[in-house]
Design a protein that fits this description.
The chain is mostly helical and 411 residues long. The chain is 75% helix and 1% strand. Strands 1-2 form a two-stranded antiparallel sheet. A hairpin with a 2-residue loop joins strand 1 and strand 2. Helix 1 runs antiparallel to helix 5, helix 3 runs antiparallel to helix 4 and helix 6 runs antiparallel to helix 14. 57% of the residues are buried.
Length: 411
């Protein structure tokens, strides 16, 4: 895989944007119990912040995507990163649960734009033969962000520095960090070549394009609903499961989560690259099949070591399937709306799956329930659903990407 220096910088910027976006999101998953304690409520009430963030992401995907299809991937990606950085940090100053939830909803709008912008910029900039591996790299930004949140939580949370004990509010102030990426993007990242070329030619509008391709768009939203149940259903409440059901301390929770996300990165890279050889659909199917035998170890083990082994295996499967999604959605999407449609489809699926966190928490805390049962139920059912649904997907591996509506297949 030979990439130019500019292509490498583009991939790096897209990766970092998604990594730090995920970092901001997953900080919350480690702090649910502490926020609930301060606002004198329970975990299901605070977990509505997860629901609101996920539910509002489709608005950001549509808004920022439309801007990027009109004004370019690069400047709107910069605007998007600054937006989610500032709003994420403002959560540190929430005087009440209501204000906190409102800020997380706004954060969801900002977070929703990044994936579509970064993936379209990268996929339109690299050679077709490199897309599968680059797709895995980009999607690994999500578990990398989760891993970073786990490391920061383990190292800093409840530590005393200069007489001040770091609590949940100080953790959210770290959300300012992603804004620094904008300086790198402005100085080193070029605009998408496909977007630049398209400025010389009239392009069809969003509604016209969707009318021609409504079937694949609707199918992809259903697929992404199951994918978002798969990822968030195995990730968001896992730290709470480790703390509440097993009583582990922050250090233990941190290292188990780190191991899980190392597995996620391994899975994303491996299956992204594998999809270039066996196809996008087959790679996703194989990854989901691996999830099923991982469930007992992941959800029902009793020792930290065995839980970590199970978490590693589960996230190899989950993010292995996800590692194919950036390239698959971009290959399925018409060029004229590639900055808008993949991100919008992704986040519309998120909207459909957005109540999964509170629903899981409700199952876990109901009489006779447990977090292990709630996690296992979601993972098993959704893995099977993805295996069934993905078999109906078109396979467009190797398609030459332009921003005009005449992409050419090289499969």
């Amino acid at each position: 895989m030979n990439l130019t220096a500019e292509q490498k910088k583009t991939v790096l910027a897209s990766f970092l944007g998604w990594t730090l976006d995920a970092f901001d999101f997953f900080l919350l998953t480690f702090l649910l119990t502490d926020i609930a304690s301060e606002f004198q409520t329970d975990v299901p009430a605070v977990s509505k912040a997860l629901f609101l963030t996920l539910a509002m992401r489709f608005i950001g995907a549509f808004f920022f995507g439309m801007l990027a299809d009109k004004y370019g991937r690069k400047p709107i990606l910069m605007l998007n990163i600054v937006s989610y950085s500032v709003i994420g940090a403002l959560a540190a100053f929430s005087p009440s649960l209501g204000i906190f939830l409102a800020l997380r909803a706004l954060f969801g709008i900002a977070m929703g734009g990044e994936w579509g912008l970064g993936s379209s910029l990268a996929m339109e900039s690299v050679p077709p033969s490199a897309r599968g591996f680059i797709s895995g790299i980009l999607q690994c930004g999500y578990p990398a962000g989760y891993l970073l949140a786990a490391v920061v939580y383990g190292l800093l949370y409840q530590q005393t520095i200069g007489g001040y004990t770091i609590g949940w509010r100080a953790m959210f102030l770290l959300s300012f960090i992603p804004a620094l990426i904008v300086l790198f993007i402005r100085s080193h990242v070029p605009e998408s070549p496909a977007f630049v070329e398209a400025q010389r030619t009239a392009r069809p509008g969003m509604l016209e394009t969707l009318r021609k391709h409504w079937g694949i768009a609707l199918y992809a939203v259903v697929l992404m609903m199951f994918f978002n149940f798969f990822s968030h259903g195995t990730q968001d409440l896992y730290p709470t499961f480790l703390k509440k059901q097993h009583g582990f301390d922050p250090h233990t929770v941190s290292w188990i989560t780190i191991v899980a996300n190392i597995g996620a990165i391994v899975g994303g890279l491996a299956f992204g690259a594998l999809s270039e050889k066996i196809g996008r659909v087959n790679a996703i199917t194989l990854a989901c099949l691996i999830a099923l035998p991982s469930i007992p170890l992941w959800a029902y083990s009793s020792t930290p070591f065995m839980l970590a082994v199970g978490a590693f295996a589960m996230q190899v499967a989950v993010q292995g399937a996800w590692g194919v999604i950036p390239v698959h959605l971009n290959e399925l999407s018409p060029g004229a709306v590639r900055a808008t449609l993949p991100g919008f489809i992704y986040q519309a699926g998120n909207l459909a799956a957005s109540y999964g966190g509170p629903y899981q928490a409700g199952i876990a805390e109901a009489p006779g329930g447990s977090y292990g049962y709630a996690l296992a139920l979601f993972a098993g059912v959704v893995a099977i659903c993805i295996i069934v649904v993905i078999r109906f997907s078109p396979e467009r591996r190797g398609q030459v990407m332009t921003v005009l509506d005449h992409e050419v297949s090289r499969v």
